[in-house]
Amino acid sequence: MSMGTDTLRPLEIETDALCQIAATVGGRRAEFGGMLGAGDDGVVRHFAFDRGARRDGKTYAPDTRALSRLYREDWKPRGIRIVGFVHSHPPGTRQPSWADAEYAARLLDWQPDLDRLLMPIVMAEPDTGRFEFLPYVALRNGATARIAPVGLRCTEACAAPAEAVATSGTPVRPRWRWRTAAALAAVAFVATAALLMADHGAPVPADPAFEAPAAPQEAGPP
To answer: What does the pLDDT look like over 46-69, one tens digit per residue?
Structure first.
């Protein structure tokens, strides 16, 4: 899988996928989430909204059975890899937690050929008044994972439909395009500030209320 060797390279995502995240995860109070998929170039073009997750305002545990089935029956036959997970946090928690890092370490063990795992955090519009997509990645760090902020690069789809439909069946209407575009300026500022301020050797502050989910058991290679 050719994605380059720079683990701190920007998170690249197509606008349609970002709009789907805005319309689902970003349109509901924390915490909600979903699975991110990419091809050989590492650009996120696929998003599966995790409608069946166990969640409340402070915890998120993925529906691993449903996501594993989607990966096995749909994504894997089409050459789509699981490259990360996105989920929302309540106001004031703008970075992945210790539990997020532990979960990322298990997923990196499951996919040893991945050099990093995408772990962006969403601040949802109903919680904060605007949608924000905060790009983070999990990097291998021995038996654990180290969380680092990265830049964001948003690309247009080659042939974007007027109205895309997320895996959840939730319509992504054009109004989300301008909301997402407006949010990108804030995202760029936040990502740049985080890169300037972050001590990459320091642990990410813990979110003590986060429930660490189990790693997928059915989605691995045969």
So the answer is: 999 998 888 776 778 888 889 999
- Residue 36, C-beta contacts closer than 8 angstroms, at least 6 positions apart: 13, 17, 44, 46, 47, 82, 83, 84, 85, 86, 118, 120
**SS3 annotation, the chain:** CCCCCCCCCCEEEEHHHHHHHHHHCCCCCCCCEEEEEECCCCCEEEEEECCCCEECCCCEECCHHHHHHHHHHHHHHHCCEEEEEEEECCCCCCCCCHHHHHHHHHHHHHCCCCCEEECCEEECHHHHCCCEEECEEEEEECCEEEEEECCEEEECCCCCCCCEECCCCCEECCHHHHHHHHHHHHHHHHHHHHHHHCCCCCCCCCCCCCCCCCCCCCCCCC
Per-residue pLDDT, 190: 38
Dist. CA 161–CA 165, nearest whole Å: 9
Which tens digits make up the pLDDT trace of 133-184? 999 999 998 888 999 999 999 987 543 333 333 333 333 343 444 444 444 4
Distance CA 47, CA 189 (A): 24
Distance in angstroms (rounded) separating the CA atoms of residues 147 and 95:
9
